[in-house]
Amino acid sequence: MNNQQDQQGELKGKIALVTGGTKGIGKAVTARLLEAGAKVIVTARNQPEEANPAYHFIPADLSQPAEVVKVTTEIQSLFGGVDILINNMGANTFPGGGFSTLTDDHWNQAMQINLLSSVRLDRALLPKMLEQGSGVIIHISSTSGQFPIWESTMAYTAAKAALNAYSKSLSQEVAAKGVRVITVSPGLNNTEAMSVFLEDLAQKAGLTVEGITQRLFERVGGVPLGRMADPAETAELIYFLVTPRASYITGANYAIDGGNFPVI
Length: 264
Description:
By secondary structure, this protein is an alpha/beta fold. The chain folds into 2 domains: about 5-190 and about 230-255, NAD(P)-binding Rossmann-like Domain (Rossmann fold, 3-Layer(aba) Sandwich), CATH 3.40.50.720; about 190-230. The protein has 8 helices and 7 strands. It has helices at about 5-10, 25-35, 65-80, 105-130, 155-175, 190-205, 210-220, 230-240, and strands spanning about 15-20, 40-45, 55-60, 85, 135-140, 180-185, 255. A 7-stranded parallel β-sheet has the order 3-2-1-4-5-6-7, sandwiched between helices. Helix 2 (about 25-35) crosses helix 8 (about 230-240).
């Protein structure tokens, strides 16, 4: 049996939760985990556009604490817990234009969606991982967490930076107990959410989507590979990190950005 065949069943017997798993990067991660034989649970605020009997779907808005309780209660009742937790939920839906456009509600929403939803899920599902002495938690952050764009991502950037620090701290606490915690920071991905974001920016700037995309590339210092990532490319990194082949990796923050990140 060759390596590719081995990897097709690499996660057989594992239970995984993917938040925000019906679109974009989350959808691609879900597909990759299913391909590897995992039993996958997916959460999202809205029902998927097409029903997929291959995974167990739980509708939930994880920015609400009660919804996190609902999800984790159902998981514990039906599955006992999870072996893999992909905290992919996140959004940059807050006004651009700098500090004066952001209200307390905007800041609170940014933290609830991009930080506290992950904190609450970890707190509920991590004890079972610790009990069994194994597990992997992936926090999906963003290169914005280390490279802010004040015009359009101020609240989002602050929340992702906080997620980075929290993830690192958690990794140090639980590593000796068999649980790995890793951060993945995607750059620009060609997702539905990115399309909406670019259309909104283009409308406000009086430019075409192509024009605003080029301006965004320039604003982030250029992308050496010259394009956005396909979500499946980002999902492949996330998939590798949850496999036994990444068993010595924890506490790291992996940027996957086409060479964009401007520091060593």
